[in-house]
Design a protein that fits this description.
Blueprint: H1 7-19, H2 23-27, E1 30-37, E2 48-50, H3 52-59, H4 62-65, E3 66-70, E4 75-78, E5 84-95, E6 100-113, E7 116-124
Parallel strand pairs: 1-7
Antiparallel strand pairs: 1-2, 3-5, 4-5, 5-6, 6-7
Amino acid sequence: MPTPVTPAELYRHGLQLLLQKDIPGWVDLWDDSGILEFPFAPKGWPPRLEGKAAVGDYMRHYPDHVDMHDFPDVRILQTTDPETIVVEMRGVGRLVETDSPFDMTYIAVVTVKDGLITSYRDYWNPLAVSEPGADFVGAN
């Protein structure tokens, strides 16, 4: 793929990397001081990760827990700030531990500067982590 130019292109490229289970490639889309926030994080889950290294550490075992198959229904909305997008999407796949279906909706607010993610606020459904096998970060 050519180098992503817009925040929307970068985001879509990141989704493809996640589907390919290329977590290092996905982490490479982040600025060294990027911040990942989870405003709805349940107890025991991190509400904020600061820096590319922390994001990489958090995500490195993601494919061991979630086998993501698709991101249908991706809708990317431009804001009045050309560096910031709002994403509405759904992720579907299976939970590796239980082989049960995984289907989660997300809303994300993402800011990209100089071609790298600097801010990502992920408003995912915290009820989904109550399912067996959904303990991505060892919180339970």
